[in-house]
Design a protein that fits this description.
binds pyridoxal-5'-phosphate, globular, single chain, 381 residues, 3-stranded antiparallel β-sheet, alpha/beta
Length: 381
């Protein structure tokens, strides 16, 4: 059976599989999107209108929280949360927030933009905050922990909650890669004092441009964030706080309302593809993340981990399979964080230097998955 497959692949023309096919993913919604464009166009209201209000209600309900504030993007969502918490609880400039050393740079940039100090923490072999490494990161200036649900898999939230509670710290979730992911049935966004989402086009729930959201059960914090995102104004031309312009466009809210209805079905397809990769990829040089029974990953990204990554990437490229790298450096290795370059986080660095993301999206076909698996398993040893 296995051998037959090999022969079959040898005689099949190379497939051409892009990492992501955003055109096709979005064209599924063509008719509804056309209606939405017309509706928003005709409304004459392009900011802070009905679509924003409805999306906020629908997304809060989806996550299972009280409040959702639609904003301009994921970085701004995180920055607004931290800035609001800082004002609310009287944190000082330079107070500390614990962040994973391996994440997209935005998670850490937001801490800096809010005038706080990122304190890097080692990650597990899954790329998630290492609960055991956190105590050593806590100082008298620590105010919050910022778990990132990287690749769509949730961090150890119950353990993080226990640590945060014992040390009187707040949890702020970065769920930019985890729309719909859950831990023991409770969704990402339902654990921390507030959570940031990104709707960057390539995310599991993606807009047609930049967009993001904050979700929280904290009513006063929600009000403050809403105000900060709107020039520090809760009432037109009255400005009670120094603020930003970090609002979501009506057109993006309208797009997201349509795509939200498809999110769970899309996530289920991602999960079934991931299941196949996990079960069928068996090359000895390839390491994969484990499938956890406690957390229901939504597989925003499916990385494999290989030494000699460049060789693997060009081998797959030659076979018509496009891969990407999320992310080639740990955050403390980036030039923009050169003050932290002397630090060492062996696991974060190892993951960054060996990760390779396979195509995984709701329109990937069964035969494409088969081809990717077979091509990987046939990599010359
Ligand atoms: C995408 C992403 C962000 C930032 O979102 P933008 O909308 O691009 O600003 C933040 N954190 C993580 C983990 C992300 O993947």
């Amino acid at each position: 059976m296995c051998n037959n497959f090999r022969v079959l692949v040898l005689y099949t023309d190379n497939m051409n599989i892009p990492y992501l096919d955003l055109q096709s993913i979005n064209q599924r919604f063509n008719d509804d999107l056309e209606d939405a464009f017309q509706r928003v166009l005709a409304s004459g209201r392009y900011l802070q209108g009905e679509e924003n209000i409805k999306f906020a209600t629908e997304f809060a309900h989806y996550i299972g929280v009280e409040h959702c504030i639609p904003v301009s993007n994921g970085l701004d969502a995180l920055t607004l949360i931290l800035e609001a918490l800082k004002q609310f609880y009287g944190w000082r400039d330079g107070d500390e927030v614990i962040v994973p050393a391996f994440t997209f740079v935005a998670s850490v940039e937001a801490v800096r933009l809010a005038g706080l100090k990122p304190v890097f923490c080692e990650v597990t072999s899954e790329g998630l905050l290492d609960v055991n490494a956190i105590p050593a990161c806590i100082s008298s200036c620590t105010r919050a922990i910022l778990p990132v649900h990287l690749y769509g898999t949730m961090c150890e939230m119950p353990a993080l909650q226990r640590i945060a509670e014992a040390a009187n710290l707040l949890l702020v979730e970065d769920a930019a890669q985890a729309h719909g992911a859950s831990y023991q049935g409770r969704k990402a966004g339902g654990w921390g004092v507030a959570t940031a989402f990104s709707f960057y086009p390539g995310k599991n729930l993606g807009a047609l441009g930049d967009a993001g959201a904050v979700v929280t059960n904290h009513t006063a914090l929600a009000e403050r964030i809403r105000t900060l995102a709107n020039y520090g104004s809760a009432e037109k031309y009255r400005h009670c706080l120094p603020g930003h312009n970090m609002r979501m466009d009506e057109i993006q809210a309208a797009v997201l309302r349509i795509k939200l209805r498809q999110l769970d079905a899309d996530n289920r397809i991602r999960q079934s593809i991931a299941k196949r990769y996990l079960a069928e990829i068996n090359h000895l040089e390839v390491q994969q993340l484990h499938e956890s029974v406690r957390t229901q990953s939504v597989y925003h990204i499916f990385p494999i981990f290989v030494d000699k990554r460049e060789t693997w990437q060009s081998y797959l490229q030659d076979k018509g399979i496009q891969t990407l790298i999320h992310y080639p450096l740990a955050v403390h290795e980036q030039d923009s964080f050169r003050d932290y370059k002397h630090l060492e986080f062996p696991m974060a660095e190892r993951l960054a230097h060996s990760c390779l993301s396979l195509p995984l999206h709701p329109l990937l076909k069964e035969e494409e998955v088969t081809y990717i698996v077979e091509t990987i398993n046939n990599y010359p040893r």
